[in-house]
């Protein structure tokens, strides 16, 4: 009998999208100690959260020059961790992230637009497990001393990216809805 992956496995996809939004920073150097990307999903109705330990971003963001701002985020899906070691291993396997075949999840922005004050809509393409979807990520932005801080939550459907293949396509155990939460902090280039 296979162990049921926790909703955190679905969160990886959410985290990738979130990271893409957060990566739209005026300064390109990410402060990894202050940044995070997590994914929250529900397994049998119980929320489970996992974290991506490794991600990188190429960011060029200026709130006064949105037309020329851009972001590319890459997440190492094998860096995903959830509380249970056995579930973490299962999530990296073929039915879930298939990290051996698809080691990275990638978000590439295509445009950044103003939303309500302090909020932005980052459009782009999210690729996970070989599947690409057009998405819009809602993100907040604020200046914090010498750093820029981007935060947000991106809802995605795990099945749109084949996260949870085979017997895991059934969403009655692990829900289809995943929330990718991100906090990206950048510092000025030196």
Automatic annotation (TrEMBL):
Residues 27-187 form the Lipid/polyisoprenoid-binding YceI-like domain. Pfam families: YceI. Residues 1-28 form the signal peptide. Keywords: Signal. InterPro entries: Lipid/polyisoprenoid-bd_YceI (IPR007372), TTHA0802/YceI-like_sf (IPR036761). PANTHER family: PROTEIN YCEI. This is Protein YceI. It comes from Cupriavidus yeoncheonensis.
